[in-house]
Amino acid sequence: MPDSQSVFQPATQDDLAQFVTENATNARRCLLPIGGGTACRDAATDDAIEVRLDKLNRVIDYPARDMTITVEAGIRMAELAKILAAENQRLPIDVPHAEQATLGGVIATNWSGSRRFGCGTIRDYVIGISAIDASGKRFSAGGRVVKNVAGYDLCKLLVGSRGTLAIISQVTLKLRPMAETSALVTLTFDSLCQVDAVLNRLLTSATRPMVLDVLGRMGTLARPNEETGRSAHPPQLIVGFEGASRETDWQIETLLAECRPFEPRTTGSFVGAAAEPLWSMLRDFSIGSKSSVTFKASLPPSRTCEFLRLATETGIVAQAHAGNGIVNGHLPDRVSKAEQAFAAIKPLGDLVRSCGGHLSLLRAPSGWPALDVAADSWAESLAWAQRLKRQLDPHNLLNPGVMAFGPA
Fold first, then answer.
1. What are 349-361's pLDDT values in tens digits?
2. Between the chain's N and C termini, which has fewer beta carbons within 10 Å?
3. 49-52 and 7-8 as β-strands: parallel, antiparallel, unpaired?
4. Please, which residues bridge with residue 267 across strands?
């Protein structure tokens, strides 16, 4: 067994299973599964062992014609993308720090980005999974073909479990072909009310967006210009498309025509390579700030603009995946104490709680208490998750104190 406060880094899945078995039989120290470390919080106990999985990075099977791949969970997302690109295929999940983040970490946190609206989440692409429970027992579910299941659907169950139920060791994914081209359209408006109206209009749009993002506050706190009465940093709607070049061009023209009656202040369209900087900005928003406090919220899409308005009034820089009701926000740099942060977040938490949503911290200074705000309707789900945790990890060895199944 490793010494106190040490790290264990298995070279094979067999090494991992043997180590977990020995720990469950003897020391029973807490285990903290870590992939690339891009979504880690402080350990729940000083006696915990970090189980780093980044050496479990082999490609097990890649039948490209079947549009599936089986890999170990420690493979870096950038490396996986490179392997798939060689076959003109992809996993359409936007992950920041892709050169560091691992597939297992993305699955454990159920991470999804801007393409979620058109492409879905990582849960939609996991069709087979292998993992090791807290006792060291190895188990598998699913395979290379999607099947109906009875009892627990372990493929879906481990997505978003944050390493609290088992340690993911191997994954089979279904894939998509690379898009011929992609494009982003930007539209700025004087108010979030206008953005909300446009989003309602897009529910019946002739176009098929892959991305519906709203940036509620750009840079400093938005204030009206004294001469024009307009905000110096207006909210921005970003709509993304992918497909054949002719199809993409038609969708851009159609979208701009549909939005013209709402009188956007400015519009812009970026196609192919010209759109890459903006794609990168959307992908990296959650980690691209100097702020030490970042949160993630989940609420009904219809309440997204209301949430962004409250965030703007508090000085929070926020990005919403408006089609799905997911919001990432950075608190102002001046917020340095937990009491200040929780006071700033409270109005947002109250709104989230009132409409059946959830809010939690993604990043916070060392030593801060956890923050999880959830509606009363989550109580039953939380109780179910706790019962499941007791079944699969009766000694509470895997990521103790971490709440699984947070914002999806």
1. 999 999 999 998 8
2. N
3. parallel
4. 187
